[in-house]
Specification:
By secondary structure, the chain is an all-alpha fold. The protein has a domain of 39 residues: Erythroid Transcription Factor GATA-1, subunit A (Erythroid Transcription Factor GATA-1, Chain A, 2-Layer Sandwich), CATH 3.30.50.10. 22% of the residues lie in helices and 0% in strands. It contains 2 helices and no strands.
């Protein structure tokens, strides 16, 4: 069901701001979808995460095993 039929606000393309097309949702066109994909590939976007120096597994123990790893009898 389209946004016009459901009474909801039309979704805007996150790249150019035009109304999104159902075929390329949430984008308005293949061009905007490709621009977004290229930004992911080139590092234009990033997912936030912890810094490597934070946390208990930042540096592995000297024996090369992390806590919780089990010896498989090899």
């Amino acid at each position: 069901m389209s946004a016009a039929k459901s009474g909801a606000k039309p979704l805007k393309c996150p790249i150019c701001g035009k109304e999104a097309a159902e075929a390329y949702r949430p984008f308005c066109s293949k061009r905007c979808a490709d621009i977004d994909l290229a930004r992911w590939f080139t590092g234009g976007y990033a997912i936030a995460g912890r810094d490597e120096d934070e946390g208990d597994n930042a540096t592995p123990p000297e024996n090369g095993k992390r806590s919780g790893d089990e010896d498989e009898g090899v």
